[in-house]
């Protein structure tokens, strides 16, 4: 008898897992030695060459998650978003289209790292016991993947995991992440009072385009330039344009979906946000005054921008998008004439520009909370408002309507024609917004509708407030776990001495703010600083980076020269 067979025979399981099928499949995808995976902020991420074993195991976990939820559909998305083309990632989507419940994350990590079939099955057994999973229930999983060349092989691995659990599956093919989230929710709510829309990709396009047509008034001439990052957003945008009437004029650029090496390369939302400049491929294409926007590689982030008459680049990031939407919604709600108007609130992270926070709280008197980085944190905080607007500065965000708010709007009886018009608008906005997760395409339509209603051009929108100059630096350290934070990542608890240094430096700069946090997706620490001038913001960031580098146990002689000390 082989070692594996012996180990399997001596297993004492508490749950009736299909041991033979799981073990056979696991042997086809042995875990590479020396690689540790972690279910982090955006699921698992890795170089794609190490990734098939993880995706196989995620298939099994997703099946168990479906059993845990009385056979509801669970989503699985294979994408590494804005990361390099050779990377890949996988995440699990819960029945309402939300991120996987956090309590499951450490179990996912343990299952992914189990070195052999016996320990893999034992880890699954622990999960089943912990969450009282009835293994005999049916399981259903819907999955999709982006345009990365590694996806077909990863999909095969996923399918093997699902087959081992005899899961009922729907393969949605090459889709954006938000489309997969939409599908998951629509499949699970079909025919119920929470029906989210027709559970199909044409259903998604119909929902968005019909809401758009109900909302849009006469549009000015001119075309929106959309940088699709050479990713799956290009496919979705082309399909959506078929559904939108002629008055949506868009020019798509960076649509080379299957050309090797171009995905997210010098383009896309992450490029724009981190470089704070126009992607080179748009130079000479974007005209002064014209609006442009960039999606990221899986189309869940959105960045807007324009060039002024002197051809100077201006970025309209997630904070500006949030300010536009929240400011608009709070006025819209007033115009509907509710007896008890829903409370509009905003959720941000520490990265939100200080002037955006001031604008929301002081100018617009909006309630605002700050939470840790990562969509799951923002989403949950936004659920506490009647209408919760959440955005990360990097352009990921959406709007949530609580069930009480939806009920309130459904029952509302407008007393005047104006109230009636505005209530109709609000209902159409609910359909236009993909509330399951940030959706670059839905957000882009929402921004365009609001600009259209307010008769704003990019400059008018930009002038809501002026961004404080800022800089983000990535610092390599020996162990990012040595850096611990509190108050939504705005302060370090450890190393305490480093936080004291941050405080003493920040105090020297007018409008200064700075923080240091460990990344949730990479083995690095991020340093952010803002101040009244560009020079000061950069100087402050470089000081904080220098100290972070040294506190991170790195050799001071090797410190990059831009890091000050
Ligand atoms: C992931 C998060 C994103 C966050 C980023 C921070 C999701 C779906 N995505 O991409 O929201 O801004 O991580 O990365 O949650 P960091 O921890 O490496 O700075
Ligand atoms: Mg993304």
Automatic annotation (TrEMBL):
Binding residue positions for substrate: 392-394, 517-521, 526
Name of the top EC class for this enzyme: isomerase
Gene3D superfamilies in alphabetical order: Alpha-D-Glucose-1,6-Bisphosphate, subunit A, domain 3, Alpha-D-phosphohexomutase, C-terminal domain
Record text on cofactor binding: Binds 1 Mg(2+) ion per subunit.
The protein's annotated pathway: Nucleotide-sugar biosynthesis; UDP-N-acetyl-alpha-D-glucosamine biosynthesis; N-acetyl-alpha-D-glucosamine 1-phosphate from alpha-D-glucosamine 6-phosphate (route I): step 2/2
InterPro entries membership: A-D-PHexomutase_a/b/a-I, A-D-PHexomutase_a/b/a-I/II/III, A-D-PHexomutase_C, A-D-PHexomutase_C_sf, A-D-PHexomutase_CS, AMG1_II, AMG1_III, PAGM
GO MF: magnesium ion binding; phosphoacetylglucosamine mutase activity
Sequence ranges assigned to domain Alpha-D-phosphohexomutase C-terminal in this UniProt record: 472-544
EC numbers for this chain: 5.4.2.3
Pfam families xrefs: AMG1_II (PF21405), AMG1_III (PF21404), PGM_PMM_I (PF02878), PGM_PMM_IV (PF00408)
Biological processes, Gene Ontology terms: carbohydrate metabolic process; cell wall organization; UDP-N-acetylglucosamine biosynthetic process
Cofactor requirement: Mg(2+)
Record: active site: 81 (phosphoserine intermediate)
Keywords: Carbohydrate metabolism, Cell wall biogenesis/degradation, Isomerase, Magnesium, Metal-binding, Phosphoprotein
Reactions this protein catalyses: N-acetyl-alpha-D-glucosamine 1-phosphate = N-acetyl-D-glucosamine 6-phosphate
Domain Phosphoacetylglucosamine mutase AMG1: 203-302, 317-455
Residue sites binding Mg(2+) per the record: 81, 296, 298, 300
Residue ranges of domain Alpha-D-phosphohexomutase alpha/beta/alpha in the record: 73-105, 136-191
PANTHER family in the cross-refs: PHOSPHOACETYLGLUCOSAMINE MUTASE
Free-text function comment from the UniProt entry: Catalyzes the conversion of GlcNAc-6-P into GlcNAc-1-P during the synthesis of uridine diphosphate/UDP-GlcNAc, which is a biosynthetic precursor of chitin and also supplies the amino sugars for N-linked oligosaccharides of glycoproteins.
Similarity comment text for this entry: Belongs to the phosphohexose mutase family.
Name of the featured protein: Phosphoacetylglucosamine mutase
Source species: Dacryopinax primogenitus (strain DJM 731) (Brown rot fungus)
């Amino acid at each position: 008898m082989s070692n594996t067979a012996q180990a399997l025979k001596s297993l004492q399981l508490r749950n009736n897992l299909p041991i033979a099928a799981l073990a056979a499949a696991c042997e086809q995808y042995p875990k590479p030695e020396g690689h540790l995976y972690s279910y982090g902020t955006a699921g698992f991420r890795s170089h794609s060459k190490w990734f098939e074993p993880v995706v196989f195991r995620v298939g099994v976990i997703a099946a168990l998650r479906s059993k845990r939820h009385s056979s509801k559909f669970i989503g699985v998305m294979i994408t590494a978003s804005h990361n390099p083309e050779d990377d890949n990632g996988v995440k699990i989507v819960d029945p309402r289209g939300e991120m996987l419940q956090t309590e499951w994350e450490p179990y996912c990590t343990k299952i992914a790292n189990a070195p052999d079939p016996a320990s893999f099955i034992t880890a699954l057994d622990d999960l089943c016991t912990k969450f009282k999973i009835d293994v005999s229930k049916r399981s259903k999983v819907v999955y999709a993947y982006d345009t990365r060349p590694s996806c077909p092989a990863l999909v095969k691995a996923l399918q093997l995991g699902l087959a081992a659990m005899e899961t009922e599956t729907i393969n949605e093919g090459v889709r954006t992440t938000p489309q997969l989230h939409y599908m998951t929710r629509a499949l699970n709510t079909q025919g119920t009072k929470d029906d989210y829309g027709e559970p199909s990709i044409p259903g998604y396009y119909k929902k968005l385009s019909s809401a758009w047509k109900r909302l849009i008034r006469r549009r000015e001439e001119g075309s929106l330039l959309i940088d699709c990052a050479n990713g799956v957003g290009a496919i979705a945008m082309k399909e959506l344009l078929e559904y939108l009437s002629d008055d949506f004029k868009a020019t798509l650029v960076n649509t080379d979906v299957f050309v090797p090496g171009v995905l997210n390369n010098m383009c896309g939302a992450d490029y724009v946000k981190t470089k704070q400049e126009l992607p080179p491929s748009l130079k000479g294409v974007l005209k002064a005054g014209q609006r442009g926007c960039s999606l990221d590689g899986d189309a869940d982030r959105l960045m807007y921008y324009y060039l002024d008459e002197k051809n100077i680049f201006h970025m309209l990031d997630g904070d500006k998008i949030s300010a536009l939407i929240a400011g608009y919604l709070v006025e819209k709600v007033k115009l509907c004439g509710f007896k008890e108007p829903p409370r509009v609130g905003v959720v941000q992270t520490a990265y939100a520009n200080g002037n955006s926070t001031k604008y929301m709280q002081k100018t617009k008197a909006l309630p605002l909370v700050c939470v840790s980085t990562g969509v799951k944190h923002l989403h949950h905080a936004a659920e506490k408002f009647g209408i919760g607007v959440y955005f990360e500065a990097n352009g990921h965000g959406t709007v949530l309507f609580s069930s009480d708010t939806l009920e309130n709007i459904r029952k509302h009886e407008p007393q005047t024609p104006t109230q009636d018009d505005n209530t109709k608008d609000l209902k159409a906005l609910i359909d236009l917004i993909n509330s399951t997760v940030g959706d670059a395409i839905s957000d882009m339509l929402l921004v365009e509708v609001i600009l259209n209603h307010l008769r704003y051009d990019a400059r008018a929108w930009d002038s809501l407030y002026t961004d404080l100059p800022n800089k983000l630096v990535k610092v390599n350290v020996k162990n990012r776990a040595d850096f611990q934070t509190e108050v939504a990542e705005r302060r370090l608890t450890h190393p305490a001495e480093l936080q004291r240094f941050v405080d003493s430096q920040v105090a020297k700069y007018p409008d200064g703010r700075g923080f240091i946090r460990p990344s949730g997706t990479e083995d690095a620490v991020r340093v952010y600083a803002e101040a009244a001038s560009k020079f000061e913001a950069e100087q402050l960031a470089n000081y904080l980076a220098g100290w972070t580098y040294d506190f991170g146990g790195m050799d001071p002689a090797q410190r990059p020269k831009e890091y000050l000390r």
